[in-house]
Amino acid sequence: MTPLEKYYNKFHEENRLTTRHGTVEFLTTMHYINSVIASDSAAIHTPENIKIADIGAGTGRYSVELCHRGYDVTAVELVPHNLEILRSKHENIKTWQGDARDLHFLEDETFDITLLFGPLYHLHGDSEKLKALAEARRITKKGGYILVAYVMNDYSVITYCFKEHHWKEVAAKDGITKDFHTVCKEQDLYDYVRLEDINRLNTAAGLERVKILAVDGHADYMRRELNEMSLEEFEAFCKYQLSVCERPEFLGASSHLVDILKN
Question: Of 54, 82, 137, 240, which residue is 20 to 30 A from 107 by alpha carbon distance?
Fold first, then answer.
């Protein structure tokens, strides 16, 4: 069993996007998936003719929601434990166990939309991330969309190094540069990036950005406060998040970004 499998066997992936801070991320992301589906290139299709690939699908939060809305969904997940949960939820989702860097079982130019919402969290270095981006590009139709999620460097520095007081141990093992960019090694589960890293990957992959979003914005910094909100106040916060998630001044400090790219 790999360290990643051990992690997800213990981590409650099933619950992550149902917490209040996770709900902010989920609702924001779904809003933009819907906007891509409603774009001119996809609007001529009925839902069942829109093919969506969910690569790194986890336990299926997005796959199941999109399948319930009538879309033709194919889910790929590396971790068997997650895949078992996903398969138990919806029999109409086509599922594969597989690695985002090698999707040989999926044909070229098959999908209108490809979601890459987990793999680039865990792939270290440009070359490994570019393999996943190349495969996503290969399976996506020309003119289709690829949505890629990243975990962000400065959120990890602010929370882990300073809020949780791990600065000294991170510095001692040379885990951060002088300009506060995390240095992630193969044994680390996550690989954190900055906006300039994402831009570099897009250039190397030959992908065109449509827009980039701070999908959870301030939510991960406000977990306790979100839980204390009334339903009315929380709904207002979700509307606020949608209104500001494209603002460039919020991108770098968000916990997660989603990059919307055109193939």
Answer: 82
Give the per-residue SS3 of 182-251. ECCCCCCCCCCECHHHHHHHHHHHCCEEEEEEECCCCHHHCHHHHHHCCHHHHHHHHHHHHHHCCCHHHH
Burial class (CB within 10 angstroms; exposed 0-12, middle 13-18, buried 19+) of 217: buried
Contacts (Cβ under 8 Å, ≥6 apart) of 62:
26, 29, 30, 33, 54, 115, 117
Length of the chain: 263
Among 119, 130, 143, 149, smallest CA distance to 255 is for: 149
Name the residue among 79, 116, 81 with its Cα closest to residue 100: 116
- 3-class SS of residue 78: coil
Of the chain, the end-to-end C-alpha distance in Å amounts to 35
Overall average pLDDT of the 14-28 stretch: 86
- pLDDT value for 42: 47
- Compute the radius of gyration of the chain from its Cα atoms: 18
153/193 Cα distance (integer angstroms)? 5
- Cα 90 → chain centroid: 21
Helix (H) or strand (E) holding 40: helix 40-43
Token pair 């393999």: residue? 131
Cα angle: 256, vertex 164, 199; to 5 degrees: 25
pLDDT at 158: 94
CA dist., res. 207 & res. 81, Å (int): 32
- Contact indicator for 28, 245 with CB cutoff of 8 Å: yes
